Request: fold
Amino acid sequence: MYQLSVIKDTIPLHPSTFGTPAHQALLRELNKKYADKVIPDVGLGIVVFDILEAGEGKVRYGDGCFWHKVTFRLVVFRPFVSEVMVAKVKEISEDAIRVSTGFFDDIIVPVSQLPHPHAYDPNEKAHFWLSNLAEESDPSEIELLDTNIDDRLYIDLGEMVRIRVEYDEFHDDEPGPPKAVEGVYKKTEPKRPPYEIIASMAGAGLGVLAWWSQAE
Reply:
């Protein structure tokens, strides 16, 4: 779930920090820049672990800062593929369930990754799984919604769930106003999160934690 990434950067120290030891000031500036930020193709920065190397500060004309070339290690949140995690259901739609670790909210479980057979109950605004039906069976959504409600295992808001990471994606959507193509303005798509994890609840032991504690 967590990794150590070695990163190189050039960090300015403002004159107001000159009374602080350089190492301490650099740690503060690095955390300010990288903690809780998504680094493309690396992951979500959590905290600077340590500074491996820091060069002598050099003054650049115009700003009065000391600029230091720094090599440091950053604790990064980026679960590996097939890693199993526990998260909390944050949002439910017909197409997907969004879950959160508490500090990272962009974990998506598409309906294709829910245990089979399953359906979305519009009255409860929640997905449910029928564990008493064989996985090989393929009932229609109408048949599933006609089942006894006591036989359904719901995935409700706020539930703690166990998920398996399928893959992750980094997005770099361009900000700005709608662009015109051949004189026609294209409708702007909703901006995607810079980092997104796609996960699954399909499999033994996955899904709502209470399902499996009851089975034991």
